[in-house]
Amino acid sequence: MAAFENADVDTLVAVLTEDAMFEMPPFRTWFRGDTLIGDFLGARMRELGKLSVVRASANGQPAMALYVAGRADEGRLHALHVLTVEPHGVSRVVAYQDPHALLRLGLATHR
After folding, report:
1. Is 38 helix (H, G, I), strand (E, B) or coil?
2. Which of 21, 25, 64, 111 falls 20 to 30 Å from 103 in CA-CA distance?
3. Which residue intervals of 1-111 are DSSP H helices?
4. Which fold has domain 2-110?
5. Model's pTM, two decimal places?
6. Residues 6 or more apart in contact with residue 35 via CB below 8 angstroms
């Protein structure tokens, strides 16, 4: 979580397994491998700017709700990353970005 908030791509990559998968349904784009995922996330994090992260869960799995800076210190929900955690690291990240679906989770805004 701290790695996302601090835009620390090296730490993000360090917790991924070498053959980790990152996908963003319903988009067909996906990434396999810690290096490709790190390259993608690094570019996105620079594009999005400061992120705030809240620990969550989805379907019994650990998850993180990511918020981008909004007006009046209120963050706007950007994505929910659902993680598959193995003993040797995070092997899969599924990033849900549909704002209408995410609103149903009660994660719409964050201060």
Report:
1. helix
2. 21
3. 2-5, 9-14, 34-48, 99-103
4. Nuclear Transport Factor 2; Chain: A, (3.10.450)
5. 0.84
6. 13
Residue 109 corresponds to which tokens in the numbers above? 């805004």
Q: How far apart are CA 102 and CA 91, in angstroms?
A: 23
The answer to whether the CB of 93 falls within 8 A of the CB of 80 is no
pLDDT tens-digit readout, 1-42: 888 888 888 999 999 999 999 999 988 989 999 999 999 998
CA distance 42 to 36: 10
Per-residue tokens: 94: 């599924």
Between CA 62 and CA 74, with CA 68 as vertex, the angle to 5 degrees is 100
